[in-house]
Task: inverse folding
């Protein structure tokens, strides 16, 4: 029973952050859940909950989503995923992990200390953001930082950032869920029970996080995003060390 409560508390905390920023749930929940559960259980569970959360956030804010940015990022993300899968077989992972970790933490510190560039960046940055995000997702299972870095520099409204990222991840997550279904990873009865139980803390976390999001300034959201980017980079460093 204590183990179940711990899992539910982890999910509540993860989706509270997701409700504020639109991302970060997997970044928080997967490493913590993996301490006591196998990845074959943890990753499909969080992916299924993330997909549901993306539909909730995206559906509730569909008018704020910038579909032109989504259509621009997805093809580059698909190409990046193919490159990442090839690199996974051919390249040593540690140097790439280290470079991604340094870049992610650098962007995070810029957010926290108020050093982001003024105004919007060019849409040309969608190409490297999509390529790196797709490749990182295939290589390391964490493709969110490049996408969120691009969107927070491209979209000046925090609600648009959250809605656009949610739909981007919903489409990407739906594709990966299809792959997991074909692989048989979603037929585990314990996973299905955990998903059913996890719906409640996920919904509560999103609701509470959304309340905070409505009262938060763009600068405040950038600081939260920056903290998550630093955490993501630190996790990549840990992967290199281990």
Result:
């Amino acid at each position: 029973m204590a183990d179940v409560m711990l899992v539910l508390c982890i999910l509540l905390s993860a989706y509270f952050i997701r409700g504020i920023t639109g991302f970060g749930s997997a970044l928080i929940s997967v490493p913590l859940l993996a301490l006591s559960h196998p990845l074959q259980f943890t990753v499909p569970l969080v992916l299924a909950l993330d997909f549901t959360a993306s539909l909730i956030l995206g559906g509730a804010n569909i008018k704020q989503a910038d579909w032109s940015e989504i259509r621009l990022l997805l093809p580059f993300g698909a190409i990046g995923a193919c490159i990442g899968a090839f690199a996974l077989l051919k390249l040593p992972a540690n140097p790439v992990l280290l470079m991604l970790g340094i870049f992610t933490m650098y962007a995070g510190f810029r957010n926290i200390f108020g050093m982001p560039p003024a105004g919007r960046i060019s849409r040309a940055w969608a190409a490297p953001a999509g390529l790196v995000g797709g490749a990182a997702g295939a290589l390391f299972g964490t493709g969110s930082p490049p996408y969120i870095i691009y969107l927070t520099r491209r979209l000046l409204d925090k609600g648009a950032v959250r809605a656009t990222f949610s739909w981007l991840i919903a489409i990407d997550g739906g594709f990966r869920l299809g792959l997991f279904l074909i692989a048989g990873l979603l037929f585990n009865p314990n996973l299905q029970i955990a998903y059913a139980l996890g719906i409640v803390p996920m919904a509560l976390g999103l609701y509470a996080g959304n309340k905070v999001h409505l009262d938060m300034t763009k600068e405040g959201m950038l600081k939260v995003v920056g903290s998550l980017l630093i955490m993501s980079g630190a996790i990549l460093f840990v992967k290199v060390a281990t």
